[in-house]
Amino acid sequence: MTALTRVSRAExxxxxxALLVEEKALTRARDALAAKRRTMPAxxxxxxxxxxxxxxxxxLADLFDGRRQLIVYHFMYAPGASVGCSGCSFLIDNLGHLxxxxxxxxxFVVASRASLADTAxxxxxxxxxxxxxxxxxxEFARDLGAHTDAGDRPTISVYLRDGxxxxxxxxxxxxxxxxxxxxYHWLDLTRLGRQEEGxxxxxxxxxxxxxxxx
Length: 214
What we know:
The protein is an alpha+beta fold. 30% of the residues lie in helices and 23% in strands.
């Protein structure tokens, strides 16, 4: 943390106005990037992927649940594991009410390589009973880059229905998912920030929400 300088209210307001210019520029740049993202080409998904759900085996098109868009969060949870990834859990804990996505014709689901039976107890422990969760094949995870020979990788993939076609429109990985972790953005407003300085990797402080000391 840089040295804290104490100033008058007028000096504080002047510094705040100066920073606001940069914040507004960042907002406009983020809007422009989002617009550019929407112009990316798409690829038709031709593989007949199958997913295990609470209502049985379904295809990728079924995951849309009647909506036009689909966002899949690939949760790092290996078959047979008793708990899921702490970083993925951090992101899911920051997930808002899905009614807001549904209002924009968009469905959100979590997909893990682990079976629904493997993840059931963990999902109950985390209080995620209402988070849509499916079990995916290793083929799906590999094709989307969420599973490699080196292991799992945090991944988000996005799809669009166009008639009978399902189009893959976007993928982001690693820190690309950080924008969805509201806790980080609240901390970015504070003087102490994320308090990750000196850590080799942020995961050194991540915990499941019921494992934090306070």
